[in-house]
Amino acid sequence: MIVSDLRSGVEQLGDMIAKASVIVPFTGAGISTECGIPDFRSPGGLWTRNRPIPFDEFVASQEARDESWRRRFTMEPTFKAAKPGRGHRALASLYRAGKVPAIITQNIDNLHQMSGFAAADVIELHGNTTYGRCIGCGRHYALSWVKMRFDADGAAPDCIDCSEPVKTATISFGQAMPEDAMQRAAELAQSCDLFIAIGSSLVVWPAAGFPLMAKNGGARLVIINREPTEQDELADLVIRHDIGETLGPFVGN
Ligand code: NAD
Ligand code: ZN
Description:
By secondary structure, this protein is α/β, with parallel strands linked by helices. It has helices at 6-19, 46-49, 55-60, 62-81, 86-96, 111-115, 143-153, 179-191, 209-216, 243-247; strands at 2-3, 23-27, 103-105, 122-124, 127-134, 140-141, 166-170, 194-198, 220-224, 237-239. It binds nicotinamide-adenine-dinucleotide (NAD) and zinc ion.
C-alpha cells in the first residue's frame, strides 16, 4: 500500500516497528544523499557523469586503474566530510534498542559504522570505498598510502606483497559478489519479520533480490524511496517521501 502523506506513513511505520521483533534494514545510496554523497540514479547522480569502470577493464588496463583512482581521489573531500544523516541515526537507534540484529547495505560509504553499528553487523554487499584492497591477496591499504604512491609514480600502485593491483575495497560491475556477505544477508532476510528497504532503486541485482526473499520468507516489507521502485507492488507499505523526514522521528537514545 502506498501512502501519500508523510504523517500517516510515519504512523504506520511506527506501528509496524512496534509490533516487529526482528527488523532488518536494507539501504541504498538514497539514505546518504542528505549527507552530501550523490546517488547513482537520481537526476544529476554519479551515473550520468561517469560511466562505471567494469572489473575486467580495471584488471586489464593500467589506464583504467589510473582513471578509477583519479575519480576516487576527486570524491575524497565529499566522503571525508560526510556524517551520518537522520536515516542512519534512526537505524542505529533501533539497533541499540535490540530490534535490529544487523543491517544489509549496498552503500560503500562507511556511514552505518560511523552511526554506531559494529562493523561486524554491517553486511556490505558492495564493499567499502574508505580503504584500498589488493585484488590478489586481499591486503588492506590506507587511501593515503595509495595517494602517496600515485603522486610519486604518476600511476595507480600494485600490492607490495604480491604485485597485483590495489583497488578500492568495493565490488565493481563484473566482479564476484562477496560470498560471506551474500550468505549472511540471505539468512537475515529469511529470519526477520520486518524488512525495510530504504533509498534504493532496487534495480541492481543480485542485491535487489533480498526484499523479495524477505517477503517470500513471511516478513512484512516496507519501501521508503522518493521515486517509485520496481518492487513497490510487493510491499505492505510504500512511503514515497524523503528518507530524513520519514526516519527523523525514529532517531532516539
Ligand atoms: P540508486 O542510486 O540506484 O538509487 C537511489 C534511490 O534513492 C533513488 O531511487 C532515489 O530516488 C532515492 N533517493 C535519493 N535520495 C533520497 C532521499 N533523500 N529520500 C528518499 N529517496 C531518495 O542507489 P542504489 O540502489 O543504492 O544502487 C546504486 C549502487 O551504487 C549501489 O549498489 C551502491 O553500491 C553504489 N553507490 C553507493 C553510494 C554510497 O555509498 N553512498 C553512492 C552512490 C552509489
Ligand atoms: Zn597482494
